[in-house]
Amino acid sequence: MDEARIETERFDLVPLNVWQAFRLTYPWTRDTEFITSFSGSGAPRSRWRWFREMVRPKKRKRFVHAIVPRGQTVAIGIHIMSLSGYRSCRFGIGIHDRSWRRKGVAREVRTRMIDHLFENSGVERLYAEVAASNLPSVFNCQKLGFANVGTLHRAQCDPATGQVHDMLIFEMFREEWVRRKAERNG
Q1: Residue 126: count of CB within 10 angstroms of its CB
Q2: 26: which DSSP letter?
Q3: What DSSP element (H or E) covers 116?
Q4: Count of Cβ atoms closer than 10 Å to residue 2 Cβ
Q5: How many whole angstroms separate alpha carbon 111 and alpha carbon 67?
Q6: Nearest-angstrom CA–CA distance, 4 and 14
Q7: Would you write out the chain's pLDDT as a tens digit for each of its 186 residues?
Q8: What angle is formed at CA 129 by the lines to CA 149 and CA 172, rounded to 5 degrees?
């Protein structure tokens, strides 16, 4: 897998290094609604805490891309892929710019990233862990064809609110994606 700039119909997905990812996402930690849906907790974060907590790019293992609308320079969100386990990849996405929410960004970006991943790696299985209360992410996983394969009950507690969250586990295998893509195109 490479760290290439990837294009969708409306977006450039720009690979970030550790410092670029930190500089982009740290200001977003002050947005309680966003950071709660993205990380499971709206608790305030110091720069040091966020640097330790955030998903950091790591060559050949973790890939972080800024989601930038075509022709613009300001990122509206971030997409994360972490290779882990046997031929597996964990996905994460966050759309920080509210004006882009409910406009198909997550679906468009994930579709392109899944295609890129399967075309350029030996990954066979994709998965995501989503807070059960994060309905936009739950629906996005379902629309893309991910299967809900389990629930981690009371898996996270937001220290800022004391609210306990169940986490849903979604997964999809390469052959399912290829079959669905053929059905869409055929």
Answers
A1: 25
A2: G
A3: helix 105-120
A4: 11
A5: 13
A6: 8
A7: 556 899 999 999 999 999 999 999 999 999 998 988 888 888 889 999 999 988 888 888 999 999 999 999 999 999 999 998 899 999 999 999 999 999 999 999 999 999 999 999 999 999 999 999 899 999 999 999 999 999 999 998 888 888 899 999 999 999 999 999 898 887
A8: 50
Q: What is the number of other CB atoms lying within 10 angstroms of the CB of residue 78?
A: 24
DSSP state of 27: G
Which structure tokens are listed for 68? 């930038």
Residue 3, classified by CB atoms within 10 Å of its CB into exposed (0-12), middle (13-18) or buried (19+), is: middle
Q: Take residue 101 and report the two structure tokens written for it.
A: 């929410």
Q: Copy the structure tokens of residue 12.
A: 């450039």
Amino acid identity, position 8: T
Q: What does pTM read for this prediction?
A: 0.92
> Scanning the structure block, which residue is given the tokens 């670029």?
20
